[in-house]
């Protein structure tokens, strides 16, 4: 895995994934841990919640964006879903379990429900530019 240069940004990253009655909570935790690094997980009220204050926890998502050259898709979603100092996007939960990071435009694109990534940051533009740069080599 390439070393990803991480800016000095203070942020809070929340990750949510519903655990359906037919799903194993441990498998959903594994799916979340395949997309978000270095975080603690909490299972209660039928969902997995992970919280991180380290932007580096988004590194796997950033690497996928770079490899697949899908920065415009992520930028569009984050801009569309921005309110104040917060933005969010959905990832496909089943793909995440298979260690594949795939963005969803709508929650319904992930049949068993999505993983929702919420980013809170005073300098949100800097996070968006780091995660999904406007211009890619």
Describe the structure in your own words.
The protein is of the alpha+beta class. 31% of the residues lie in helices and 26% in strands. It has five helices and six strands. The mean pLDDT is 91.
Keywords summarizing the entry:
single chain; alpha+beta; 50s Ribosomal Protein L5, Chain: A; six-stranded antiparallel beta sheet; 5 helices; 6 strands; 26% strand
| First-residue to last-residue Cα separation | 18 Å
Count of discrete domains: 1
CATH superfamily: Ribosomal protein L5
Strand order of the largest sheet: 2-3-1-6-4-5
Identify the CATH architecture: 2-Layer Sandwich
Helix content: 25-40%
Rg (CA only)? 14 Å
> Could you give the count of β-strands?
6
Architecture blueprint of SSEs:
Blueprint: E1 11-18, H1 25-33, E2 40-44, E3 47-52, H2 59-68, H3 71-80, E4 86-92, H4 93-97, E5 103-104, E6 114-121, H5 124-131
Antiparallel strand pairs: 1-3, 1-6, 2-3, 4-5, 4-6
Give a concise summary.
This protein is an alpha+beta fold and 137 residues long.
């Amino acid at each position: 895995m390439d070393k990803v240069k991480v800016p000095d940004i203070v942020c809070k990253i929340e990750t949510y994934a519903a655990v359906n009655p037919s799903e194993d909570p441990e498998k959903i935790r594994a799916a979340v841990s395949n997309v978000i690094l270095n975080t603690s997980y909490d299972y209660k009220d039928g969902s997995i919640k992970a919280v991180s204050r380290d932007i580096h926890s988004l590194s796997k998502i950033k690497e996928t964006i770079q490899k697949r050259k899908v920065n415009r898709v992520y930028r569009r979603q984050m801009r569309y879903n921005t309110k104040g100092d917060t933005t969010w996007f959905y990832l496909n939960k089943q793909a995440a379990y298979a260690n594949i990071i795939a963005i969803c435009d709508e929650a319904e694109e992930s049949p068993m429900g999505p993983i929702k990534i919420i980013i809170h940051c005073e300098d949100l533009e800097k996070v968006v530019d780091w995660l999904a740069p406007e211009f890619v080599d």
